Amino acid sequence: MAIHSGAPCTKRAKLAPPATPSSGGLAVAAGSGEDHISDLPDAILGEVISRLSTREGIRSRILARRWHPVWPTAPLNLDCREIPVARLFNALETVHVEIISRFSAYSEELARIRYIGTWHQGKTAPGDGSCLPESILSNHVGAVLRLCIPACYLQCRPSTVHAWLESPRLNNLHVLEFYYLFPRFVKETVKLSHTCSSSTPSLPKSVFRFSCSLRTVSFACCQIPDHYVEVLELPLVKRLSLVEVDISDFSLQSMINSSCPALECLLLVCDRERHRITINSPNLVSIGIRGEIGKFIIEDVP
Question: Whole-angstrom Cα distance, residue 50 to residue 41?
């Protein structure tokens, strides 16, 4: 709404109702018919697109001809949680994920359950049946600021994850999240030994190269060995989530207290009965715990 200076007027001004986008995306002002947003430089339009969801960022190409070439070069926000499961895997791809569950409520025994199956693309699946995240990345040439992908990719598509994380387009990555995807889409189930097995994928070593850029990190259903934590430095990370991560108590404490000195928000989803975890993080203001932790000691937090 424009504001004009001048002498006070006794008549009540009529205000045009604000434009409300039907899809939750960008609003175009009604009334004058002029599109002032499209007159902005590409750099500013790219910043606008980078703050949209993945879906809305791609849809910005249909706003006007002026917007069409902006998305491929704008900073990318790729969140696979917005993508239907049918588009996360290629047709006939072998998908195997692993979860951890408790054998008994009265023991520390854990059961690792592996779900294995072949993904069959349904007839109603949109598009040509290709993996949508790969299609998005191949059609986008700009930098990637946020990458949020299923944790099962670490096990069933490790080479793909490695190639993505090694790409120069992720040099300034701000958000990296591996989220848990429940394996409803596979048929065969194989139960493994209750002991922690080496089949659980490790955290990719390529994560280390983002130590100077990451602000938000989430790891799920993977191993973080002690020798990884010894060299892991995430000085800018303010939000850290660890969901069913295989990590020792010592490394967990070191990761919270030393590897992430700027940490403000922490989420732990795990079962660590009879374990002792000591938190000494001067900037931590929020702690979320889901599961059972034996002894949780907070020594120095705001």
Answer: 14
